[in-house]
Amino acid sequence: MTTKPFLPFALPDIDEAEINEVVDSLRSGWVTTGPKTRRFESDFAEFVGGNCEAISVNSATAGLHLALEAIGISAGDEVITTPYTFTATAEVIRYLGAHPVLVDIDPNTLNIDPRKIEAAITSRTRAIIPVHFAGLACDMTTILAIARKHKLKVLEDAAHALPTRYQGQLIGSLDSDVTVFSFYATKTITTGEGGMIVTRNPEIAARCKVMRLHGISRDAFDRYTSNKPAWHYEVVAPGFKYNLTDLASSLGIHQLQKANRFQQRRQEMAERYTHELADLPLLFPPSAAEGDLHAWHLYVLRLKPEAGIKRNQFIEAMAERGIGCSVHFIPLHLHPYWQNSYHLQPKDFPDSLDTYEQAVSLPLYTKMTDQDQTRVINSITEIL
Fold first, then answer.
1. Rounded distance, CA 132 to CA 160, Å?
2. C-alpha distance from residue 354 to each of 134, 187, 296, 346, 349 (Å)
């Protein structure tokens, strides 16, 4: 066992700017959704290229749910997505009584394999949810072409993908119907919990705004800040409680300003991992294509058979050296709910299964020092 302090898998990078903004919100009296949230939404819309609406929510899960509801997904519909994702991507489909149809990944990119999508389309298919795994963009040109051909909606799960670029464009500025980002504690930028819906469709935006807060026809912020009596509102739909608070948005305002710098540091660290571990029996994560940008939310190694150690043993060996690793992801078809509900077997998605059995996510976050990363690299070298 090591005597060195434990190096966690991830930590948020928060400094005095965020702290001061939160304190300012506390002193202002606005702690729920208010002026800071409006500012964060406006800043985010500008960040991803403008000419869009950015609608804040209390999680990316909430954002995916609202977006699916807004594009009209209902009971009996089918939505195509990948098994190599967190359960939130698929569970929101079930919230609406619809069914996820899983399509295996490309073993090189670990993103949904566009070559397999058309075979999964039926008369009940209404949408596709591509997941930009680890911060590498999916093949959106092909996916969008398939969607147009079959008149399907496209909802990008961009929980890992800020600030990812695809063919020179930021994710969030493509021709999909909706893009949803996450600001969970481990993401490139964080609000603790939180997310953002981005769309260029005013009808989708309007529906998301109404359903975000109980199906009420007027924004509570507008009602409470009016200098004239403005207490009246109407409930026009059975909505949800998915709003983001000003306390969370206070973090987001300043985190967003650092997003590009955070990505640059993550990329430097990713490139160092790949360079310094190159001689070991490992499969390395792919880089972005020329002209694109990988967000490097995750750095996922895969152990080759000749490594002589199983993935679980490797993680335990790293933990013994005081280093936290993780696994992204346990594919959906290996979980009891999805197995039992859709009669799935482990071998139904062989590329997802093989990747999962080999994969380990290394610590990668901007608060890591060069010395921290050297410690990780030396530990991996020692083990392998």
1. 6
2. 17, 25, 22, 10, 9
Shared domain for 250 and 291, answered yes or no, is: no
> Do 63 and 176 have their domain in common?
yes
Active site residue 187: yes
Q: How many structural domains is the chain composed of?
A: 2
Catalytic residue among 187, 228, 310, 367: 187
Residues 317, 288 share a domain: yes
- For the entire predicted model, the pTM comes to 0.97
The verdict on 152 and 284 lying in the same domain is no
Residues contacting 149, CB < 8 A, separation 6+:
none
- Residue 87 has which token pair? 């359960």
User: Taking residues 151-179, what's their average pLDDT?
Assistant: 98
Q: State whether residue 119 is helix, strand or coil.
A: helix
- Kindly give the residue spans of alpha helices, DSSP state H, lying in the chain: 16-28, 35-47, 60-70, 88-95, 140-150, 202-212, 220-225, 246-257, 259-276, 311-320, 336-342, 350-358, 370-383
For residues 247 and 264, state if they share a domain. no
Contact 178, 71 (CB under 8 A): yes
197-249 per-position pLDDT tens digit: 999 999 999 999 999 999 998 776 665 666 677 778 899 999 999 999 999 99
Same domain as 264, residue 230: no
Q: CA-to-CA distance for 41 and 37, rounded, in angstroms?
A: 6
Two tokens, residue 135: 């911060």
